[in-house]
Amino acid sequence: MYSDLHLENISDLVIYILIKLSQIISTVINPLVVAPITFGLLIYHDQTHIPRHLLFFISILFTAILPFFTIIYYKKLGKLSAYDAPLRQERIELLVIAAIYNAIGFILLDHLGASQLIKGLMFCYAFNTAIVWGITIYWKISIHMVGIGGPIIALWFSGFDHPIIMGVIIILVGIARIILRAHTPAQVITGTIFAMVLAYVELTLLFL
């Protein structure tokens, strides 16, 4: 059954399964997926007179859709070795562009009068992405973990306080990134703490 994989023993099979599971986890729970889900929960859970569909469209446009097509474009140009930009140098320009997208999204949400938490989260995306850009010039911090930590804080403030589920998601993604050798444990832990602490400070001091 596994002859094509040249598996010599059970440990090879276990490693193969772990890698495949890690790839699935990293693909399913990545920043471009987490952002629309988070904004969707916040926006449709919020009591507002502003058309929710408009707020949601703006949110996903500047945190997921535009970044996604930018990645596709950069891959087509040959600037990326893979769609997840595995090399640190490949991420620098993309992070600058993402920060600009997020900043425009924040300006639009603020102009429309979105709730403090919704526009606050977009501010976190813009500001924290800019900081991650600065860090990435020198060190490959985990963008996956940064993209999870901030939204978890925002959801917690909104009443979606499910620590066990949130903790499991953080642990699963963190371990997956380490198994895939995309990041070291230090890069994963730093990304998580960085995002959660900054999001908490920014939201409490500036928006809530």
Give the structure's gist in a few sentences.
The protein is mostly helical and 208 residues long. It has helices at residues 10-28, 31-45, 52-77, 88-112, 116-136, 143-157, 163-179, 185-207.
What does this structure look like?
- α2 (31-45) packs parallel to α6 (143-157), α4 packs antiparallel against α5 and α6 packs parallel to α8.
- The protein has one domain.
- It has helices spanning 10-28, 31-45, 52-77, 88-112, 116-136, 143-157, 163-179, 185-207.
- It is mostly helical.
- Helices cover 77% and strands 0% of the residues.
Name the features.
8 helices, mainly alpha, 208 residues, 0% strand
Write the layout of secondary structure elements.
Elements: H1 10-28, H2 31-45, H3 52-77, H4 88-112, H5 116-136, H6 143-157, H7 163-179, H8 185-207
Kindly, what is the distance between the CA atoms of the first and last residues, rounded to a whole number of angstroms? 57 Å
Number of strands: 0
Shape: globular
Residue stretches low in confidence (pLDDT < 50, at least 5 long) are: none
What fraction, in percent, of the residue positions are helical?
Answer: over 70%
Helix count equals: 8
Order of helices and strands: HHHHHHHH
The whole-angstrom Rg is: 18 Å
Largest sheet: none
Whole-number mean pLDDT: 93
- Number of domain units: 1
Category from helices, strands and their pairing: mainly alpha
What fraction strand? under 5%
